[in-house]
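Revision sheet: structure tokens.
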Amino acid sequence: MNACVEWVKFLVQALNKSNCYTCAVGQPQAQVVPFPLGWDIDPEGMHCMLALYQDKDAWGNETHKSLSLIFPTLWRSDSRAIPSFSIGNMNHSSCLSRQGAEFNKPMGELSTCTHILNVTGKSNKGNYSALHIPQANVWWYCGKRNLCNLLPSNGTRTCALVQLAIPFTLAFHKIPKNTHGH
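Predicted:
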């Protein structure tokens, strides 16, 4: 059984429901969705995510342990492995902005950011140009068709940390109560 079906079964059980129908397209396409953490919701969690992108030993830090288990390090980055995706109309609160002449590769413009960490010239708070360790199940979305598993070190613009989700609909059927002859 594939992962999508297993996920639907888990959701139905988690909702403590039964007697339902699931609707999805024959060949579902992943959709960009906001990362569950954000600079407004959990800034400490966002700093942990950036640490996981910067340091292979960050998983050993007790503060970063739970996120490193959910988003494990990939052994290598393969830009050809970027899946097909669609774009929803959603705001993102997990955005990074890098601007300046030293970042010479335009990555696109993301205008749906509600909370942005501007890391231009922030060398005293970490090397934000060195986000070089890819993580599983999380991507950098820089607008239009720009989805990367790593944020290029020479890229300029604003990008959001995102995940991909397969859209589907659950429809629950309510069984009529037996009215015993009424």
